Amino acid sequence: MKTIKKVTALLMSSMMIAGMLSGCGSTETGTETASSGNTAKETTAPAGEVKGESKSDGKKTIVTVWTKDRHDAEYQQARVDEYNATNTDNIEVRYEIYSDNYPQAIDIAFQSNEAPDIMVHQAAVFNNYVNAGNFADLTPYMDDEFLSVFGDCLVEGVNVIDGKCYFVPTAATTCRLFYNKNIFEKAAIANPPATLEEMVEDARIITEKLSGEGIYGFAANLKSASSALSRSLMPMAERSLGNHMGFDFAKGEYDFTVYAPLVEAWRILVSDECAFPGCESLDIDPLRTQFADGKIGMYMSYTHAEPGVYENQFPMSDEWGCAEIPVLGGNVMGAENYTPNNGYLFNAASENLDAAWKAYVAIFANVDNLAGYYSAGLGISSVDAVIAKATPKAVYAENPNLLLGENDKVWPKAPHESNVDAVVVEGKDMYTTLGELIYLDVDIETELQALTDRYNDAYRKGISDGIGKEVKIAGFDPLNP
Amino acid sequence: MPPLSKEFSVDLEIKMNKKVRENLRSYSLLLPNLIFFILFSVYPVFWTLKFIFYQYGGYSVSTPKFVGFDNILRVFRDTTYWQAVKNTFVYAGGKILLTIPLAFFLAMILNTKRKGNGLFQSIIFIPTIMSAAVMGLVFYLLFNVYSGQINTYLLDLGIISRPINWLGREHAMKTLIITAVWGGVGNYMVYFLAGLQQISEEVLESARLDGANRLQMIWYVTIPMLGPILKVILMLSITAAFSDMSNVMVLTEGGPTNATMVMALYGYQFFFPISASAAVNPQYGYGAAVSFVSALIAGVVTVLYLKVSKKLDENV
Q1: Per the CB < 8 Å rule, is B165 touching A4?
Q2: d(CA B280, CA B80)
Q3: pTM of whole model > 0.90?
Q4: Which terminus of chain A, N or C, has less C-beta within 10 A?
């Protein structure tokens, strides 16, 4: 009896282990499964041969593109449809939107070897995977014609690493102060604030004069400290302190202690004296609805998104304006970082790279399409040839601060940006700490010093473990980073 | 030992074959469930246990690095985690202390033969089957500062002069507990109802004849007779409250400034982003360590409860 039980148990265990292995198998197993299931047309031969085979048997080469953007979906889908209907290479582009939890979708796709051929660039995705070799180097595909248009978009340390280009940004976004002109007029404030001190004072005046009507001076989407502060306090620190993400490039170490005066001013900004009630539990879209409804005097956000939001998503009857992020004491100590966007990353493991590049050039790196994109107000172009061809919407002419100016530059990446695994910070990160500091009655200097120590400890540990590299730029000029 | 007779051996073999056939049938019926249980419950536990000892940034990093007990030691240094543990106890305590008496009270009311009881039972039970996302959204609409219905009513009635920030640091935990009570009371009410319907009418009748008033009947008859089911309800509510996070994730994302961060959500955020706007820097190894310590804490609380309830049983 015991023997029979043992044999039965052994058989069952084997079956279960087999089940586990097939379900949660190794990468190699996954590759085979994915290859055979997902891209059956392309898996049996190298890309060139596949295309020949595809043409001969009439099957199309499928190129999958994933995006996180919904605001331009209609425009991009129309360009994709047009390409699918007219291209003579027998390529079909499938354009898919994954706006919620995009990095997570990419994570799972890479793990199961089902990553798309092309995916829209997002900083978190790029930083997570570039060091693991998941993205294709696009440099070999770029011919002279391409480089003559997009050559200026290749920036070492941004989209080019060690001579390899991984994406080509065609647009840019940065942060600005958005204010309600009608509210400013009602509160008898002539101009938007240029200094942090003026900003605090203006917010106080608006709240004092107009809170009876449900109108308040300032708001921030502090439900998520990272989402709120990355579009407000961080660019303010770049301009006011010449410090990007707490990192001092000249000294080659983190230093958050210099943020103290900003934190002090923010404590007033988010207090009942100035702020819209409930800022600390506000998401960005509810904030925008209240701004569109004329309840908020000013807030800070990204230039690429807000014009479209107030035209399509939450139409606004009041007139809004756009100004540069106010600086501490009126002294601009550094350039403001802008984010190159609308880049596309190519899956290094894709067997359709040639077809993917052809489709990409025809749709997403097409000057006519990009000019239409810019003219439609969907994004701010950073490509000269596109700017020359486009007719930007009136909103850009009326608000020149929406466009990149001479004070907007691309900063080098701080160590935790260039390699997320090399700076594993213990305890609260910079956003959580700063978010707490502006609300809680704790000693600012002590907490900022502790934050600095946590980041420097993690940074040095990464270097000593051989994962990270020392970042120090001799003669670093924050005004021209 | 004398050898077995031939007849006896054949008989034994027939019996064994029958037993094997019966067992095989049972095992084959169990097999599909067992496979899924092992795949989706047992295997992830062992996976998590393994990565406690590694620094692993998720799929983006090619090789996990063995770090021994570093992750566990880091948990003990992590003040935010211990703040989350404290919040979990406040949340669980508040939820259980409010849910159980309320569920019992509702069950007592509905344990009578009155018209419309079925309808009331269904209405109270609906939140239990509602998704946490919908529940969170509904409560966000009710409690948000600028246009929430709660503030609108309170302002209209003149009870308050300025909107209360229900989701701010000061009140967010209370709001979460209210949401949790609303979502959980129906479930426990059904358990209590099942228990109440098991109490024999004769026992209640004899207590009534002995002159017990309504309160005395509840205290001296109903509650003691509900003992076994009450123990189960309490155990379920403790384990549920300690592992609860969907509610928190949807309504406050653990904020503002970690004021409502609970230990389950704190561990989760090292694996996945809490929301589309939240930044995520996957730390699977540390997340596994946090989850392991959290499971230990919840386990210790449950065992303590079982010990206390056993002790009380012995004293009774």
Answers
A1: no
A2: 16
A3: no
A4: N
Which helix (H) or strand (E) is A179 found in, with range?
A: strand A175-180
φ, ψ of residue B229 in degrees (nearest 5): -75, -30
Q: What is the mean pLDDT of chain A?
A: 85
Best of A5, A12, A280 to disrupt the B interface (most B CBs within 10 Å) is: A280
Which chain A residues contact residue B78 at CB under 8 A? 426-427
Whether B55 and A424 lie within 8 Å, measured CB to CB: yes
**Cβ neighbours of B273 in A, within 8 Å:** 101, 103-104
The domain spans of chain B are: 72-315
Q: Does domain B72-315 have CATH number 2.60.40.1120?
A: no
- Pairwise pLDDT comparison (A167 vs B210), residue with the higher score: A167
Domains in chain A, ordered, with CATH? Answer: 45-168+343-378 (3.40.190.10), 175-338+409-464 (3.40.190.10)
Cα–chain center distance at A104: 14
Q: What is the mean pLDDT of residues B250-278?
A: 82
Residue pLDDT, tens place only, B253-264: 888 888 899 999
Phi, psi (deg, nearest 5) at residue A275: -95, 155
Note whether A128 contacts B60, CB cutoff 8 Å: yes
Quick one: closest CA in A to B43, which residue?
A20
Give the pLDDT of residue A269: 96
Are the Cβ atoms of B279 and A226 closer than 8 angstroms? yes
